[in-house]
Design brief:
about 0% strand; transmembrane; globular
Length: about 400
Amino acid sequence: MKQPKAVWAVAFSSMIAFMGIGLVSPILPAITEELGATTTQTSLLFTSYLVITGVAMFFTSFISSRIGARKTLMIGLTIIVLSSFGAGASGTIEGIIAFRAVWGLGNAMFISTALSTIISESNGNPASAIILYEAALGMGLAIGPLVGGVLGSIAWQAPFYGTSVLMTMAFILLAVLMRGPAIAPIPTNFGAPFKALANPALLVMALVAFFYNVGFFVIMSFTAYPLHFTAMGIGLVFTGWGTGLALTSVFGAPALTRIFKRTTVLIGTLVLLSATLVLFAVLIDSPKALVVMMVVAGLELGIMNTVLTEVVMEATDLPRSVASSSYSGIRFLGGAVAPPAAAALAVASTMATPYIMGAASVALAAILIAVFKSHLAHVDRHEPTEVGEAVLEAAAITVGDS
């Protein structure tokens, strides 16, 4: 708790940045109704955001290694402030989609730099600083949908304006508190993240993350529709989901990897998650059952997020910033595919079909690990880490930077 003010400023900003991912979930039905949009169009609010975030992740390490962390953070925040305000002011679904795409660029620049900044600016054990960051990340994923639900109950534009105000506060905090001499960055080669995918272990884990994220974002982008709740009700459900995710990512995953091999934990959790997605499909007409499934899925996703990123961290000898840029870029692109595919399947078939797609994609991720396990044998020989160390390694790769 005894950290410089700059660390608290970056941690607060990180929480707000991650709130933006789930902010629109509770207001998707309202946007669909009030703007006369289709579910496929509203799904693009996620896709435009995630596509740009994923593509930008390949280049943020190149940018920050040349202009420095502080400038990268400030530019990212500025883009988020302007684009979130623009999304609220836009009167068309096409305009919101465009501003969400710009928002994704700002978020990529910010979240890819925030973690390394917290580490470099913090006092004492780096693991303690990462636990603080991981807490901010989890709180953002849990609170974002709740804020979206509360403000969305007023008007669908309110969550966008609220984010703009909060990120303006974050910008001011960083401008005032993050001062002092900057550490000279070490330049990163422009094409390094692309060349890194030639490494078999990294390529396998990037593909696993791609198919896993399809299931993740089917749950996150589509579940608001079959729930048939108000914006506030949807926000509360997603808060329960995010809280479960945060708890198991920090505590559950390290406990499991002290007992089982990492690849065993990954395969087992992916199988359970695939089964959970099948239950979503089977119980699609029962909102109460869907609420329970959301909490269960959150617990499973938290384990996956941490263990998956630990494995990526140990999978290669590549520089962490390079490996994480490649992995995170592919992972976000997987998330971008899911929302429009889920919406299109629901229109063409039934509301249950998107979850079947998600279950199949997650199962494919488990199969990839099982088939190419030989490329990952070295990560299972690694000694089990303490909770703080596990969080340090996992959070570092989760946000796309070392």
